[in-house]
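Hi Y.,

Following your request, here is the sequence exactly as I used it, all 599 residues.
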Amino acid sequence: MHGKPLQDYQAGSVNRSDLASMLRRWWEPESIDSAIALNIDKAILENIHMHVMRVPISVMAAAALVAGMAAQSVPAIWPLMWFAAISVFQIVRFLWIRKLSSVDDDNISQRLSTCVHLFFYGSCLFALSACFIPFADESYLFVLTIVMIGLVVGGIATLNGYPPLHFSIAVPNIGAIMLGWIITGPDGGGYWVHYSMAALLVLLVSYLFSFSRDTYRAIATMQVMNAELQKALDSARTANEARSHFFRVASHDLNQPLQSISLMTHNLANRDLGAENQWIIDSIGNNVSVLTQELDMLLDISELDSDHFSVNNKRVDLAPVLAEVADLYRPMAAEKGLALVTLLDSAPDIESDQVLLTRLFRNLVDNAVKYTNEGTVTIKLHTSEGLAIVEIEDTGIGIDEKDQQLIFTEFYQKNNPQRDRQKGLGLGLSAAQRIVPLLDAVMTIESTLNSGSCFRVEFAAVQPRDAAETTTGSVGSGVESRGLSGKSVLLIEGDEILCDATTSLLESWNMAVVAANDWHSVSDLLDQKLPDLIICDLQLPGEDGYEIANALKISRPHIPLILLADENSIERGGVDSSRVLSKPVDVSLLQKEITAAVV
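Below is the corresponding structure, written out as tokens. Let me know if you'd prefer a different format.
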């Protein structure tokens, strides 16, 4: 039980024959296991430490009142000596308990036992004030009764109703005052009044013990509930971590073949295989693109719900981020005959996470393009009242007011009962809603059914920019491979199939490719000839891709470096994230990054 080392509980070696254990048997709820019992004892010790400063002040004030009244009936030296003894003991107990409470969690039993003895000795010392009763008048007896009852009642709250501590205070004080009422009586009889007071004190003590027991049980029950809640929380956290681990593994294991299929499909699309074969290739490419988007959405939701997710804020210029997102979705808009327009006015920088910003805007623009059948999708950036404001407007199907909160629900899709895969899984806006509070932003929506929608995101500005930057665009296409011919590439890739697919794609752009799968091979190739560009996959079997990337940036800082990683595995801050592309890599984006690096 309480006050015993945890190993004693576990070994079943607790001896319950002592008085303290007998009292606890009456005090505590049933089914208190060893860990909870130990937590209760810790809580009691912490509570004693918290109140240790208040106890000496209240006890010394009460002792001063009692000593002052006793000095009117007996020589003042005796009450004064008693008061001095009380004061010295309170100070010593205060220092001793503070020292006990500053120790670590070891020896809880011994420390609580020491506290019980200290409170018992202090109560016995205070009970000596009853020695002045035979020499004092009846008013002293009444005052002493009130003071001692007050000390006992106050001890219930101070000591959490802990049985040994409560008895160590109640028995000496109430026992002494009961004895005082019994052995004294007024002149001329009337002893029945004193006997009645003694009987009332017995009833009061029984009530206080009952109240103390209820207090202790309430605290013990709360500890039990806290333990159950903690167990449920740990179980939920374990399940969440297992889910996150599954998705991290799935991110790598599924993205690798998807990356290979995507690159091979794009390579086949550039060859003359006939109209019928071309249709099959295009169909494969479209389905791979849809599958990639759906996988990315599932991984985004998993990562955003993870306890390990962190935000890496830095100063960000919104215009280039929005321009990049617009370029990414222009081909998709062009296929639907939509105009994707960017109106990016001069706006101040914001303090935010650029990776999360990109995810947020991609989800909003993706939703706008998917649910707009004709007309325009417009990305706006402007400033108002110290805020940088981004608006994603479309002329799509719109959202009825009663459905405007439902669209943020996972897997909810408006006007898609057949679950058309071209419209995704219905997770984009749900992910966007999770991202917004992480960025300390505010998102609102204005929409009219059959007229279109506008998603508005507001950010706190931190620094204005000097020059205005306005970009407009419409239906666009991908980046051509002109300028890449003859450029040399060192490809660091551990997956053989993905290495062959990437090599084939780069060679279709007339680039000279050499491949390596570990640092030793990379070092040998760099000693032979320096390439125009290095492309490195951060997930290498048996190698740390981050160490290789950092080593390349230090040893060959003049060679452009493009990094490939699973989106949920990118360690922002571990390497320069300006050229980290998440797999499966969009071919046009890869082509654009390569062109920007070497041309």
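The longest helix spans residues 191-269.

Thanks again,
Q.
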